[in-house]
Amino acid sequence: MRHLFLIPGCLAAGLALSACAEKSGDTVERAFQDVNVVDETNLNDVMLTVADPNEAVDYFSRAVKTKPEKTELQRGLAKSLVRAKRNTEAVAAWSKVLGMAEATDEDKVDLADALIRNGEWDRAKKTLDTVPPTHETFKRYRLEAMVADASREWSRADSFYETAVGLTTRPSGVLNNWGYSKLTRGDFSDAERLFGDAIRQDPTLFTAKNNLVLARGAQRNYSLPVIPMDQTERAQLLHTLALSAVKQGDVTTGKTLLREAISTHPQHFEEAVRSLRALETG
């Protein structure tokens, strides 16, 4: 009979051990789920920064098919499409993100960015108009400035550019855009100043250097500015200055500058050679 009394005790012990095993298994499973979440987040970040843009699109396309309800994955797909320069698809992807419950004001700004890249300026303006004024970010004001530029609302554009410059520690790009806006308006001296500011912020920004030379050429100032440049850049800038001189009707000066560009370039400067040949024969 004593053995019979032992049976319930053994059963109880067995059930307790079984419960412990189940709890342990649940804990391990939750731990693995947590690790998977961290790994997925890290992989998402990698795909959005260093991965090939089209590979990132493929990755997020697969991910949203598995978990279409996850806003972060839909957002990752939209960002990847922008990186891959698939702008029409990016507009559709960002529009889908905005239809989700977790959409933010920054998502509206990103949709406006995609619309601008796709040449849909009116829709971009309407989208930015829905962003509350309390959402003050560099990207928002940079896009507002570009939209105002496209509408030839110069005072608004200047105001937005100025605000954008104050909201970033790397303003070279927006200073260059602002300068180009001034250049298209015919405000050459202001454009020259802004391009110079852009170069001081980023001495490697060749686009600003080229634009600076265009602004000087438009004022019939055919000397190169004192800015950082290597030999190849110097030749290219001389070529730009030469074409600007020709456009102003100063053909003799243009020829001289082209010859200097050809002799300055460390290799054969075919584009300048063709330009000079065209002037000399025609």
Description:
This is Tetratricopeptide repeat protein. Keywords: Signal. Pfam families: TPR_16, TPR_6. It comes from Antarcticimicrobium luteum. Residues 1-21 form the signal peptide. This protein has 282 residues and is an all-alpha fold. Among the domains are: 24-103, Alpha Horseshoe (Serine Threonine Protein Phosphatase 5, Tetratricopeptide repeat); 104-168, Serine Threonine Protein Phosphatase 5, Tetratricopeptide repeat, CATH 1.25.40. It has 14 helices and no strands. The chain has helices spanning 2-49, 53-66, 71-83, 87-98, 105-117, 121-129, 138-150, 154-165, 172-185, 188-201, 206-218, 231-247, 251-264, 270-281. Helix 3 (71-83) runs antiparallel to helix 4 and helix 10 (188-201) runs antiparallel to helix 11.
Compact description:
With 282 residues, this protein is mostly helical. The protein has helices at residues 2-49, 53-66, 71-83, 87-98, 105-117, 121-129, 138-150, 154-165, 172-185, 188-201, 206-218, 231-247, 251-264, 270-281. Among the domains are: 24-103, Serine Threonine Protein Phosphatase 5, Tetratricopeptide repeat, CATH 1.25.40; 104-168, Serine Threonine Protein Phosphatase 5, Tetratricopeptide repeat.
Key phrases:
282 residues, mainly alpha, Serine Threonine Protein Phosphatase 5, Tetratricopeptide repeat, 77% helix, elongated
